[in-house]
Amino acid sequence: MDYYQISMPNPADPEQTDILIAQLSALGVESFEEQEAHLLGYISFDEFDKDILLTNNYIAKCDSEGSLLIDVIEDKNWNEVWESNYPPVKVGKRCYVRAPFHDQDHSFDYEIIIKPKMAFGTGHHQTTSMILEYILDMDIKGKRVLDMGCGSGVLAILASMRGASDLVAIDIDHWSYENTMENCEVNNISNIRAFLGGAELLSEHKDFEVVFANINKNILLRDMKSYSQSLLVGGTLITSGYYNSDLKDIIDCASEYGLEFTGNKIMDNWVAGEFRKTK
User: 139: pLDDT confidence band, cut at 50, 70 and 90?
Assistant: First the structure.
């Protein structure tokens, strides 16, 4: 299949690159290469629509400045792209997240295979890594778990490996929905049910004991009530996808819906916050 290569300068703030990748992936861009000065994205001929891409403010800005370049790429070896941009992820000495083309490492307690389709949600990003750390430290055996904004499904997969009894994974992005099901099959996981949609689905899926929501600040604030309503009293909500400067807003919003702040992790100014439902 033929693809377009989209080239743009890296954002001035390096922390915005991951957010931009997530935004562009939602517009159909399938994979990315991060270079020293530029970010390259690849989108198939069937998915390409420049008008849709221009709805992204950063893309529109680059286009108006003449720094957005779009070229046809024929017969690209996508395995080479993935292998050069997808190193395995090691979470401490306990969890090893790798692609099918990486060697196994039996020194870890848990090994997760993720078929890479994009750079967000695979374990590489700080927010995903921090929640993986939470899962490794939690007593999750026999619990009912929700992975909200599941991406590749890596959080739900580790939770299943750690003994969660029943898991629901939800994402509004069709790629994420399909990739989660694919990765469950690769890892021989059978107790994760994946759904395509957003917080509106939580009216049908409730009584969770643990909820992971790795999305972004605005979505977390908007859907906090739904997360709380889907969580049993005494249950745990782990949030991420926002910066340290946003933590107070998240705490204030969570408290309105009976969610008590119990601690957080910080990695490169990204935050994962932990909450307990008290009422």
Answer: very high
* Tokens 């910066």 belong to residue: 243
Question: Residue 30 has what DSSP assignment?
Answer: -
Q: How many CB atoms lie within 10 A of CB 252?
A: 11
Predicted pLDDT at 119: 39
Q: Which two tokens stand for residue 238?
A: 């782990």
What distance in Å separates the CA atoms of residue 143 and residue 272, rounded to the nearest whole number? 21
Residue 71: CB atoms within 10 Å: 10
Supply the DSSP string of 75-100, one letter for each residue.
S--HHHHHHHH---EEETTTEEEE-T
Only one residue has tokens 């969570």, namely 254
pLDDT per position as a tens digit, 199-217: 999 988 889 999 999 988 8
Of 194, 193, 135, 189, which is closest to residue 159 (Cα–Cα)? 135
Q: What is the pTM of this model?
A: 0.75
